Amino acid sequence: MTLPICATCGMQYAAPRPDCPICEDDRQWVPATGQQWTDLETLRAGEYTARVEDQGPGIVGVGCEPRFAIGQRALLVKAESGNFLWDCVPYLDDELIGKIRDLGGITGIAISHPHYYATVVEWAHTFDVPVYLHENDRQWLGRPDDAVQWWSGTTKQVGDFTLINLGVHFPGGTVLHWPGGEGGAGALLSGDIVAVVPDRKFVGFMYSYPNLVPERPAVVRRAAELLAGYPFKAIYGAWWDAVVREDGHEVVQRSAKRYLEFVS
């Protein structure tokens, strides 16, 4: 059966439905023209093509052109414990599968928050790998599947990586710390849980980005405290080339301090 994909957020659902809960949530939106649907077969038959580009040392961006739905790109991380996919994109075709396999494939997938769940079950089945999602966001998965491993608590070790539940943006909002990144100086892969903004001297913390709702101060304070114990030079955000290249740890702490001064 052809499975529906929301054209606004990219979430794939297990069966046809009239609404998209992700878009009806106040962190997202339903277009003024109403709910619209597509599917992978339609996307593959259209203008979309695979996009795979280096984003940093041992980190490869994965996505499509032109932009679809939210427009994020995923990151394939080349770690000693095996290639790992951080975040996900809705588009997947034979070209993209071939490019990822040429890079050595992937051993697992983890996702920062529900806006990027996308077609993750398609990805998991294609590469025969597990998906690690935080249980606090279980209600948002559009296509439940046995490939998904729900984890709980504040941290989870997966190979060379530590998943850290910061709770920003969504209760299950998670970042990935790679201590071996940047030649051993450490990298933080943050989606938009810790958002890389145009001014690379700072990052942002929001409950809703499109609707401009700031995150609660207590949540941001906890996030900064949790990240204080992890060294990282670079921060890789959700968008193509959205990377803080230097002083990432200090950037997060500085940004949290400024944020709390403005909103508290």
Automatic annotation (TrEMBL):
SUPFAM superfamilies from the xrefs? Answer: Metallo-hydrolase/oxidoreductase (SSF56281)
Q: Which InterPro entries match?
A: Metallo-B-lactamas, RibonucZ/Hydroxyglut_hydro
Q: Where are the transmembrane segments?
A: none
For the Metallo-beta-lactamase domain, which residue ranges apply? 71-230
Any Pfam family from its record, for instance, is: Lactamase_B
Give the protein's recorded name: MBL fold metallo-hydrolase
Q: Kindly list the organism's lineage.
A: Bacteria, Bacillati, Actinomycetota, Actinomycetes, Pseudonocardiales
